Amino acid sequence: MKIELSNEAQIKLKKYFDAGKNLLLDLDDGFGRFSDEGTCALLTKFRIIVVDSNEDLSDYTVHLDSALGTIYFKDSAKDFLDEHLSLKVDPKTQLLTFSNSKELIDKSVNIIEE
């Protein structure tokens, strides 16, 4: 499966790939080692989590191919996947936005370095 990164999104994310980090497009749903149990919101909230290359990614079984490299995605969030995934930068907020062919899924995807 692929994810399109706008030029602006590539600029924001390139330094992490260049440093050999892994990027997780994570739904904060209370599942997995990077979600705080019981703190998930009623809103759909995605974030990019930057982790070391030796980090355990067993919760992230979906691999999204991008122009920069693989972005890992949680199996529990598969309902959001389709053939037209994209990460772009909102020109007003300068935050990443995540969308598929049907909807803008999240208009404020934060980047978190673990």
Automatic annotation (TrEMBL):
Residues 1-112 form the Core domain. Pfam families: Fe-S_biosyn. InterPro entries: ATAP_core_dom, HesB-like_dom_sf. It comes from the Bacteria. This is Iron-sulfur cluster biosynthesis family protein. It comes from Candidatus Companilactobacillus pullicola. The lineage of its organism: Bacteria, Bacillati, Bacillota, Bacilli, Lactobacillales.
